[in-house]
Each structure stands twice: as structure tokens, then as C-alpha cells.
Amino acid sequence: MKYQVQENCLTIFLPEDVDHHNAEEIKREADRLIDREHIRYIIFDFADTGFMDSSGIGVIMGRYKKVYMMGGEVWAVHTNERMKKILTMSGVMKIMQIYEEDK
């Protein structure tokens, strides 16, 4: 996983599969950066992601709860149709915004 911090914004470049095998590592590193860098905004970058299970949903929900308490927001970028469907069906779309670039 790759992480990028700019001011109070953390971008998490998600792997091809976001599942129970790597969710714990994403949570641990994201939480460390959120605390250390005083992060208020998180961008989940789905450019390389083709699969996400409930563990991935848990990663998003947990980080949302963490930054929401500080007035922050969670965003998604580069979501393909499959990821949009997963995010919608899981209810995550109610708490996160999807940023789409003009084609």
C-alpha cells in the first residue's frame, strides 16, 4: 500500500484486492498517520482496486469515524463501476463522496 500526506489530507492508494489479508495493515498505518499528522481528510484511491470485501468496508467506516469526530471528511477517487456498486450496496456512499474527473 502507498500513502501520501499533504497538509491535513491523507491519500490511501488501495491495492488490487482489499480483503482481510491486508485490511489490518491498512487500518494500522492509516491510524498511525491520522494521529501523527493530524489528518482531517482521507482520500481512498481505487485506481488499482478490483475487489473489496467487508474488511475493506470496515477500513473505510473506521477511518470515517476517526476523522468525522474532528470535522473531517472521506472521499473516493478513481472508482470503477464495480467499486461504485460495492460502495453503494454497503451503504458507504452515505458517508463518503466520490470525486469523478471530467472525461
TrEMBL record:
A Pfam family reported for this protein in Swiss-Prot or TrEMBL: STAS
CDD domains given in the database record: STAS_anti-anti-sigma_factors
UniProt-listed PROSITE patterns: STAS
Domain STAS: 1-103
UniProt superkingdom: Bacteria
Family affiliation: Belongs to the anti-sigma-factor antagonist family.
PANTHER family, alphabetized: ANTI-SIGMA FACTOR ANTAGONIST TM_1081-RELATED, ANTI-SIGMA FACTOR ANTAGONIST TM_1081-RELATED-RELATED
UniProt name for this protein: Anti-sigma factor antagonist
Organism phylogeny: Bacteria, Bacillati, Bacillota, Clostridia, Lachnospirales
